Amino acid sequence: MIIELRKTKRSRSGKSMTDDQQMNNKLLDAVRWVCRARSDDDKRLIINYLSVNKDGDIAATDGYRLHKATVKTDKLPAGIYRVLKTGAVVWLDKMPDSVGKFPDYEAVIPKTADHEETIEHNEHNEILFAACVAASKASGGGTYNAGYMDQAIPADKFSGKITFLGTDELAPIMVQHDIGTAVIVPLRIRL
């Protein structure tokens, strides 16, 4: 079953969008953002896909990071999806149950945090730098892949606050914002 997600634009007459159109746009933004964390590893095919559960959680991981967004809609039934195309239009192909079981991503989301840092949205370059500093502070000095941090922050769709939650420099950092939650594993630096 192929599902197509397409952006709904405001009409030229200036009419506001219906709740269904707004939900469609929220779903599309969430799927695009979650797709940033998908793997392309041929050896672990199951993490090349998106997982959607019955509660509306949409998740993807590559083993080093996880993106999870929640959108309650009947447009995307629970299951595992192969992403056929992303961009202005997203095409998803629902896979048969025999494809395998998606990893238990809830198990890697930190349940507690000793440190919390919050930043406000501003220009993207400034927000990426601020995000890396906030993540380091929230983790007690951890170092994180800047590319993963950049992809965890949906700068083009984001407004509001980003919260970073961490325990120590060896634990994953949790990044929360209005689209979803990202978990990023710290870099391991060997000397």
Written account of the structure:
This protein has 191 residues and is of the alpha+beta class. The chain has two domains: 2-98, Roll (DNA Polymerase III, Chain A, domain 2), CATH 3.10.150; 108-184. 20% of the residues lie in helices and 27% in strands. It is built from three helices and ten strands. Strands 1-6-5-2-3-4-10-9-8-7 form a ten-stranded antiparallel sheet, covered by helices on one side. A hairpin with a 3-residue loop joins strand 3 and strand 4. The model has no long low-confidence stretch (mean pLDDT 85).
Strand content: 25-35%
Query: Which geometry do the CA atoms define?
Result: globular
Distance between the termini: 50 Å
Largest sheet, in brief, is:
10 strands, antiparallel
Reported by name, the CATH topology of the largest domain is DNA Polymerase III, Chain A, domain 2
- How are the strands of the biggest sheet laid out side by side? 1-6-5-2-3-4-10-9-8-7
Q: Please work out how many helical segments DSSP would assign.
A: 3
Could you tell me the radius of gyration in angstroms?
A: 17 Å
CATH class of the largest domain: Alpha Beta
Order of helices and strands: EHEEEEEEHHEEE
How many independent structural domains?
Answer: 2
- The level of helicity is 10-25%
Provide the residue-averaged pLDDT. 85
Structural class: alpha+beta
Poorly predicted tracts of residues: none
Number of strands: 10
CATH architecture of the largest domain: Roll
